[in-house]
Amino acid sequence: MHTLSFAHSLVSACPFLQRLFGERHTHPAILANNAIFRSLDQNRPIEEYDFVVLDTELTGFSVAEDAIVSIGAVRIRGMRLNPADSFFAMVDPGRPLPKASTLVHRITPQAVEGRPRLQEVLPALVEYCNGSLIVGHHIGLDMRFLNHACSRYLGGTLATPCLDTLKLAQVYEAEQWENYYDRYQSNVSYQLGDLAVRYGLPLFDRHDALQDAMQTAYLFLYLVRSLRQGGIATLKDLYLSGRSWRFYF
């Protein structure tokens, strides 16, 4: 075999060498995602957009040192939640689980043993999300981990715009203060479960990726419907209400 051809074959066959020599292939799911969100019309009614409400359970908060152990997502279409249209995966992080993280999300080493690795799960997750805007509570953290993994394993990052229900809740509470000064409370907790209790929403188990995604979906629907009483009708209106719109890469 010609020396150059042989070297090219080695690089193509080995992901490590692809990264070392700067050659990598972008997964079709990432290419499709980037094509979908190359442009976005923000002036359509909110009901015309699809949303995927997403949550991850992590071993910690460092992208460099920690890992995803589970992913849950559920779809909102026409501003209606369909619990049957969901995504869930338990992931083997390929490293020991810190005891501190197990105490939080109750995912044990035995629970992830034999589960697929993240690189096996990612293509299906990206395909599930494609065409929908992503919603999450403190979604920037989830997207940092997901895009770090997408860059490593799929050759690119998600271009999907994201909405943060934590930011939306802050906008809503500020609106309550502006309109009803006597109702303002300075000690509002913006933790997901506490907001659900505050707004009288159905309660789900905490620190379970799919259950937290469901909880966030109910919170998102409540906040958007409540904010719409102030004249929010389009995606752009939602953005302008408090610049709660976020792009995470």
Total helical elements: 11
Strand content: 15-25%
Could you state the order of secondary-structure elements as H and E?
HHHEEEHHHEHEHHHHE
- Tell me the number of strands: 6
Structural commentary:
By secondary structure, the chain is an alpha/beta fold. It has one domain: Nucleotidyltransferase, domain 5. 45% of the residues lie in helices and 16% in strands. It has a six-stranded mixed sheet with strand order 3-2-1-4-5-6, with helices on both faces. Residues 1-13 and 244-249 have low confidence and may be disordered.
Topology:
Blueprint lengths: L2 H11 L1 H7 L6 H9 L13 E9 L9 E10 L2 E11 L8 H7 L3 H4 L5 H12 L3 E4 L2 H15 L7 E4 H15 L12 H7 L10 H20 L6 H6 L4 E3 L2
Parallel strand pairs: 1-4, 4-5
Antiparallel strand pairs: 1-2, 2-3, 5-6
Helix pairs in contact: 1-2, 8-10, 9-10
Short structural summary:
The chain is of the alpha/beta class and 249 residues long. The protein has helices spanning 3-13, 15-21, 28-36, 99-105, 109-112, 118-129, 139-153, 165-179, 192-198, 209-228, 235-240, and strands spanning 50-58, 68-77, 80-90, 133-136, 161-164, 245-247. The protein has one domain (29-247): Nucleotidyltransferase, domain 5 (2-Layer Sandwich), CATH 3.30.420.10.
